[in-house]
Specification:
Blueprint lengths: L12 E6 L3 E2 L2 E2 L3 E6 L8 H7 L2 H6 L6 E5 L7 H12 L3 E7 L34 E4 L2 E7 L3 H17 L6 E8 L4 H7 L1 H11 L4 E6 L17 H17 L14 E6 L14 E4 L7 E6 L6 E6 L17 H6 L3 E7 L6 H10 L17
Parallel strand pairs: 5-6, 5-9, 6-8, 9-10, 10-11, 12-15
Antiparallel strand pairs: 1-4, 2-3, 7-8, 11-15, 13-14
Helix pairs in contact: 3-7, 4-6
């Protein structure tokens, strides 16, 4: 497969029908364009008609979204290109804006480019040295690179590229990933460039989801086998399936996909050839619970510091949300996909914060505690 080529995917089929009345409480226009989403198993339109009732097909017409797709593993990674193809196959209008080079572990770091592309060039040789800091795939005008960190790439996409592509229409959803490797727990939430791009978008007021896959091999989209069991294609299809579920029953002309300040983190398990997992069900989870943070020790053989995972109490004390939910770390260690809803409001819950605020009351409005009566 040559650089710039898209991974082959089943084509979307369209049909136009005349319908009237209501479907599950939804008022239907006299004439409606229906996007026929390929069946997730066979990718065949006719099979889906047989397998699902007509009502399900009619409701899919509300699911076409304006999507900004980004990541931290670069615009040329296998996962992002397979996800681009899967989302496009479902009828969404997708704009891909990814980092020019690998940017893993950047968290929410915001760095804009000050030069054009420097040596050794774009990831996997995808961009020549000296090329502009921003450009698009010669074979697809909807695929762009940007020479910045993931958070900066997402915001550049929203502010500069989105108006070029969507005009005055808004973005319904930012999809970040799927990352090459999981990002479970609050510690990696702060470190992950994939999640950083998502929470930067949430902070800007755009619904966003961040997806991370257990398969951690860093690979070019040109290595995609085109087979259904290629890990990149599994990740892409699962991502597209989740987007369908997220948008189901939502009219984005009237309502948001997620409330302001809220995003979703998703962690896929390891799947594909060599694994017993190929269809991990989505499972509601929380970020804490079995989550790990780094612990540093000295390697006696080398004398240099090394890090190991530590399940620490500070990381796993539930303060918010549904505390009885399973943790995303142990959930995605098996053949399940962990789905955690997060918020960018980092204030502590009132029942936790209030006693601390009360105890600190004497210092507020002053620069130090009074050391004797009458001292301000």
């Amino acid at each position: 497969m040559a650089p710039g080529e898209s991974v082959p995917v089943p084509s979307v089929q369209y049909t136009r029908v005349t319908i009237t009345g209501h479907v599950h409480g939804h008022q239907l226009a006299p004439t409606t364009d229906i996007i026929a989403i390929p069946d997730p198993v066979s990718h065949n339109y006719e099979t889906m008609i047989r397998r699902h009732p007509p009502e399900a097909m009619l409701l899919t017409s509300t699911l076409a979204l304006n999507i900004l797709l980004t990541n931290d593993d670069s615009w040329a990674s296998a996962n992002i290109r397979a996800t681009y193809s899967a989302l496009k196959a479902d009828g969404h209008d997708v704009l891909l804006v990814g980092p020019a080079v690998q940017q893993s572990g950047k968290g929410g770091t915001f760095v804009l480019p000050t030069t054009n592309i420097t040596a050794p060039g774009g990831e996997f040789g995808s961009i020549p040295v000296g090329a502009p800091f921003f450009g698009n795939d010669v074979n697809d005008p909807n695929i762009f690179y940007f020479n910045g960190t993931p958070a900066a790439t997402a915001i550049f996409g929203l502010d500069i590229v989105v108006p070029m592509h969507f005009g005055k229409e808004s973005v319904d959803l930012v999809v970040s990933g799927p990352n090459e490797g999981q990002n479970n727990g609050p510690f990696l939430y702060t470190l992950s460039g994939t999640i950083g791009a998502a929470y930067a978008s949430v902070e800007r007021g755009i619904p966003a989801i961040a997806l991370s896959a257990g398969n951690s091999t860093h690979r070019s989209f040109t290595t995609n086998t085109g087979k259904a069991d290629d890990p990149a294609n599994i990740a892409g299809r699962l991502t597209a399936n989740f987007v369908v579920a997220l948008a189901h029953g939502i009219n984005t002309k009237k309502d948001r996909l997620l409330p302001l300040g809220v995003g979703i983190g998703i962690n896929f398990p390891t799947f594909g050839p060599g694994s017993n997992c190929s269809a991990p069900p989505f499972t509601l989870t929380r970020m804490t619970g079995g989550a790990t943070v780094d612990k540093v020790s000295i390697n006696p053989a080398t004398g240099f510091p090394i890090s190991t995972d530590l399940v620490a109490p500070g990381l796993n004390t539930p303060l918010n949300g549904l505390t009885k939910l399973p943790g995303e770390t142990p959930t995605s260690a098996g053949c399940k996909t962990a789905v955690s809803v997060f918020a960018v409001d980092y204030d502590a819950p009132i029942q936790v914060a209030a006693p601390i605020q009360s105890r600190l009351h004497p210092i507020f409005g002053k620069t130090q505690l009074p050391d004797k009566p009458g001292h301000a």
